[in-house]
Specification:
heterodimer, A: alpha+beta, Arc Repressor Mutant, subunit A, 57% helix, B: 2 domains
Amino acid sequence: MIKEMREPTFLVLATLAEGKRHGYAIIQGVAALSEGEVELKAGTLYAMLDRLTFDGVIESAGEEIVDGRLRRYYELTSEGTSLLGEESKRRVKVSNIALRRLRFVGGIA
Amino acid sequence: MTQNLARSQKLLRFYPKAYREERGEEIIATLQDAAEARIPRASPSDQISVALYGVRVRLGLTSETMFGKALDIAAIPGFVMGAVFGAYLLISAELPVVNSKFFYPDFGPFLTVGPLFYLLWILGVIVIFEWPQYRRRIAGLCMTLTIVGELLAKLAHRNPNIWEIAILVSLGLPSLLAPDVYVTRRRVLPSLCVGLVTFATLFFATGSNVNPGFFNSFYWSGTYEIARRQPYVDILLLALFAVLWFSKRREVAGATLILAGPWIIVGVAYPLSLQNLPVDTLNVIALIVWAVGMALIVTTSRYRPRPPAPVELSTLNSES
């Protein structure tokens, strides 16, 4: 049975790999990483943040008030860091195999 | 901006109070940030997603709760169970009616149109196994088409068997309601096992004494036989639930209860709908036990505030 991390989750974790981020900064980070392909909705984001926090993959990293708005920051836990690392390695491995095969066929230089 | 703020605050009413107190201001801030980026206001899809997640939190349908986890476990096996039921209806109800030398215009849910809907569920299972991330959309599509099909059948003066259709549609509900998970789970083997057990149970439970045999039409005696033999199945299901619950496999126990629901409810509702058919006492007891079990799962899945996270304002302020 194959278990694969879904793309939006991978992008959220990859955004947090750069450092702590608040809600809207995560949405922006995901959009930037995916070159606009993945646009997280606010409700989807909070569902993901709740789930990842519950699973110990991310954690709250403090909060502050900016222009009268509460910003809560999130960061990867050590478990989240290793999870993201493993998933990244898996994706790189598969991509490398695909690229090697495409070169073998002669499609890509 | 004031209007945006008021609109965002209204959206928070969808969330339970404890969640609102914990995360409300944070969500409003994110919506306000999004609104500034998309002048003049936050997109309707942003607002809808916030409202829908609020309803999910309120009902305990998130992946952290027992209800959410049980639904996640029940989702694909439930859909497979529905497809197996569809396949059973196809070969045990539709085909005998169509092949019958007599003309029975009132039998079968849609007569010759019915098999199309059953095949849709079977096709749905194949698609869900291949692309489990689309589970919710496929379940929604199959359920909608089945309900619309039933209404059209009624308009065409057919006599759809509402109980079988209710079971079929209910078995798609876990796929529709289960929270999204961040790994895609196929669960092929457990789902196929659930399907096999369902088929075997239907085969033995609906074999009529009057017309024994595999190709006995479901619509002549099927629902009656389900209701009549349901107590035996109920006892097995509730025993399985108890064993799983007390062996601390509570999410699987919850999934068993969710999948047993449509059958147990129909086991009581069908005889009640016919005035001359007595309701089996064991069926009623099973329904009560089922309702208590579901209430237990739903109430333990209510949102509870988390312990406050450590706040490091000084660090954050110095960084910003």
